[in-house]
Design a protein that fits this description.
This is Small multidrug resistance protein. The chain is an all-alpha fold. Helices cover 81% and strands 0% of the residues. 25% of the residues are buried.
Length: 107
């Protein structure tokens, strides 16, 4: 269950990171509120996950999910460049996330 909680925490990390762009430097109230709520949920879920998972593993996976999701949505939503190198390095992060899951007894 803790891996599922960690995954959901990572999804909320993506939400608050993308929310930063939409909040326009916290000048837009509604996107700012959504960003703050997503951040709080992400942190609460991460805190819950680390009660059963090692902090180093959980934090690395959480940030990895956030990095991959945010970079991917940056390409899709904000016309950030999608180069072969960028996709390759995002893929390396995914491999790291899966590897940490496998060696941490999470399967």
């Amino acid at each position: 269950m803790s891996w599922y909680i960690l995954f959901v925490a990572g999804i909320f990390e993506i939400a608050w990171a993308i929310g930063l762009q939409y909040s326009d430097g916290f000048l837009k109230p509604l996107p700012t509120a959504g960003t703050v709520v997503a951040l709080a949920i992400s942190m609460i879920l991460l805190a819950r996950a680390v009660t059963e998972l090692p902090i180093g593993t959980a934090y690395a996976v959480w940030t990895g999910i956030g990095a991959v999701g945010t970079a991917t949505l940056g390409i899709v939503l904000f016309d950030e460049p999608m180069t072969l190198a960028r996709v390759g390095f995002i893929s390396v992060i995914v491999v790291g996330i899966v590897g940490l899951h496998l060696v941490s007894g999470g399967h």
